[in-house]
Amino acid sequence: MNEELFISGRDNLNIDPVLHIWHWQIPVYLFLGGLAAGLLFFASLYTIQNKDKEYRTAVKIAPFLAPFALILGLIALFLDLKHKLFFWQLYTTIRLESPMSWGAWTLMIITPLSMIWAASYIKEIFPNWDWKFKWLIQFDKWVVKNRKVFAWLNIYYAIILGVYTGILLSAFNARPLWNTSLLGPLFLVSGLSTGAATIMWMSKDQAERKMFSKIDLILIGIELFFIVHLFMGFLASSQVQIEAANLFLGGEYTAMFWIFVVGIGLIIPAVLETLELLGKHIPVFVPATLILIGGLVFRFIMVDAGQVTRYLY
Q1: Whole-angstrom distance, CA of residue 216 vs CA of residue 196
Q2: How far apart are the C-alpha atoms of 267 and 96, rounded to whole Å?
Q3: Which is more confident, 20 or 253?
Q4: Considering just the CA atoms, what is the radius of gyration of the chain in Å?
Q5: Helix, strand, or coil (residue 311)
């Protein structure tokens, strides 16, 4: 591809301005989807490992947020649709080569699974809760009896959902910034990190907090590894992807990305969590909040910056 066919930057980008608007819906949807995937992944993982009593918040309490995150994410996605009355057509067609088809069916499966998972712990979290209908009582008993089956289903679809939030962007080959196979794993790890941060924030058990601090430190390290290799891959690629990388290496997104995403969202929380593990008293909401903010800003930047980069034919 001739490097003259690529133009980077909002001022000299010759595209319809209607296509380049800082919509909040898609970044919010990607963030909430990744968060729900992280919460369900850890809940399922520790259930499979028979550690549900050891990590009570991760398995029984934090997953109550997952259905709300998914529903709010779907509402945001619906609001972004141009032809809202035809959304149902996503569920009348299965195209294995289409990320949208995979995403639609994954969300249709994992959303009720997340509701069932949370509902199965209602009586344990709220002892006075009483199901009013006999069939609900029988269904609840059946779910509790087969909880590991639901755990395997949840962990499988949580991974797909976490990867899909990145693949949804990388499938757009016409956008050089998004056209990389690293976005799927990067978004998955970011979602797991936000899930771990939420569990760490919600937990009142010191041992559980420390465990998820350790997990989050590992995830932050992996995320930084992917970010570095993302830019290394761009800089070693064609001119269009070098130009895409330059948006973050001296271009208009440099300060926001490296300060808010890498600095505030990853490095500072990693330092604070390390100090906490070393015995220093660090309020847990500080690193957890920074990680959540960093994860949300990351998705806003990637969605917006990807629209700036393009091939011109």
Answers
A1: 6
A2: 38
A3: 253
A4: 21
A5: strand
Q: Which amino acid is at 78?
A: F
Q: For 18-61, what is each residue's pLDDT tens digit?
A: 334 447 888 999 999 999 999 999 999 999 999 999 999 999 99
Q: Give the integer Cα–Cα distance in Å for 52 and 48.
A: 9
Q: Quick check: 47 and 147 in contact, CB under 8 A?
A: yes
Domains of the chain, start order = 3-308 (1.20.1630.10)
Q: What is the Cα–Cα distance from 173 to 244, expressed in whole angstroms? A: 13
Shortest CA distance to 31 belongs to which of 313, 299, 312, 225? Answer: 299
d(CA 210, CA 231): 32
The answer to whether 31 and 25 are in contact (CB under 8 A) is no
Question: Exposed, middle or buried, 212 (CB in 10 Å: 0-12/13-18/19+)?
Answer: buried
Backbone dihedral region for residue 9 (phi beyond 0: left; psi -120 to 50: alpha; all else: beta): left
Q: Which residues of 1-36 are buried (b: 16+ CB within 10 A; e: fewer)?
A: eeeeebbbeeeebeeeeeeeeebebbbbbbbbbbbb
